[in-house]
Amino acid sequence: MSNSVMNKVEISDNNVHNKDMLSDLPDCIILHILSFLITKHAVTTCILSSRWNDLWKRLPALIFHISDFRGFRTNKIFSEFVSKVLSLRDSSVSLHTLDFENRSILLEVPIFKWIVNYAISHRVQRLRLSVNGGIAQIPLALFSSHTLTHLSLSICYGCENLFPKSLNLPALSTLELENFTFSVGDKDCAEPFSTFNRLNRLLISHCNVENWGTLCISSATLVNFTMYNDSDDYYKIELCTPSLCTFSFRGVPYHDISWSNISSLKHVDIDAEVFPYTCYGPPLFLFNWLSEFANIKSLTVTATTLQVLSLIPGLLKFKIPSLGKLKSLKVKIDEIQCGLLALSNDKLQDIKSKKEAAMIHKAFDLGLELSPLELDGVVDFLLQNSPSVKVDIVDCGKKTS
């Protein structure tokens, strides 16, 4: 091949490599890509070329996290940035998603209300708010949005956050709540989700019920229910969820759950633990939950969950009427999670002195673990009605290449 031909090939290759392929994409695709970036970074793309100068103003998704800002007067800089973005944004474009997080510093109420009202007025569908402050900061317009399909609310722990009794969110399918108290009505029952006719997924994290009442969850459409709990705040839960397929729990099982019409429940995932001073109630609550799972196909538990069950005196002598249709049992082993002391039955029955109690607390701190033999015994207990089920042991602490 001649030198002239070779030079032409090299020049052609360089043109291909230097060509701005991304800018040749349609606006809708570029905007979709930018939607995955935090807004602070998406805005900086305006310096790339004149083509990109105003693209960010039509973003369908905005992500504002104060953790992405550093330096002196962080809160002021963050607030000014959010205000400027919303002011310059193309108001004719609907806002599909707003993810707003400011848990470190108390945000000025007028600014926060303006942000939420902006999202609602622009027909937001997915809204996540994680803020340092009480629910009083949230505009009432949020609780009557007809476009919201996904709502995630996380309020600073310690504030008085009574979740509203009456909501009008007809399109809502996913609801995630953290650090809320549910208000009770007649018969000390709280029914905060009764008006959600399309609710498909519900997550309640570190929530409780006013006056230790009963949380009633009645939904014909609910498919996935998840709970996180890290306290010993006891309350009852009544579930009437005929479409429920998946139940997940993480934390201290300190709830008496009444399972009504859960024949559709097929998948259960439990990561349980106890505090040293709550070693009586949680194991029994957990045992009662398992006794209700008649039709589930798969069960996933952690090693600590097995340890919590092992605290029940004479556990291996009990017969349970459930878990007869089990097809899969997965046990997750994690070094961090395996620090729960499996108190012996004798010790549970005979905590007679402050000295012994102090020893038990110390044992919890040291993180004593179940022996393999004890772990196998609890697994056999779970499989007594499905002995042929294959057990998968997953080492979550093991690094994979």
What characteristics describe this protein?
twelve-stranded parallel β-sheet, elongated, 401 residues, alpha/beta, 10 helices
How big is the Rg?
A: 27 Å
Strand-and-helix sequence, N→C? Answer: HHHEHEHEEEEEEEEEEEEEEHEHEHHHE
Lateral arrangement of strands in the main beta sheet: 1-2-3-4-6-9-12-14-16-17-18-19
Residue share in helix: 25-40%
Query: Low-confidence parts lasting 5 or more residues at pLDDT below 50?
Result: 5-16, 336-369
Averaged pLDDT, please? 82
- Helix and strand content put the structural class at alpha/beta
The proportion of residues in beta strands is: 15-25%
Distance between the termini: 46 Å
Question: Main β-sheet, in a few words?
Answer: 12 strands, parallel
How many β-strand stretches?
19
Query: Which geometry do the CA atoms define?
Result: elongated
Number of helices: 10
